[in-house]
Amino acid sequence: MAVSIRLRREGSKNRPYYRVVVADSRSPRDGKFIEIIGTYDPKLTGQNSSFSVERAEYWISKGARPSDTVRSLIKKQKKTVTAEPASEAERESSEPAEGGLSPSAETAS
Fold it and tell me: pTM of the predicted model, to two decimals?
């Protein structure tokens, strides 16, 4: 069975919304699928997709072939995932350390 990772169209007329699915390549675009791994909304600007990169990599390791659009979405998602931990580390270093209660709270008790 040839498996592909592709977009499944949902939403109404002129308001497309897609689910990123793993499906048999012989099934129709909006037909049967094996697993839903995420979503993609082309009308949104900025971060317009959310899906599990781990599951996509799992299926690719099993021989699934991503479509061109899904391949670019995976690439963008990996880029944002690797950028987020770095920005979280910067935020943690800039926040003041929590040392328990403030001096005014200690004297009040």
Answer: 0.69
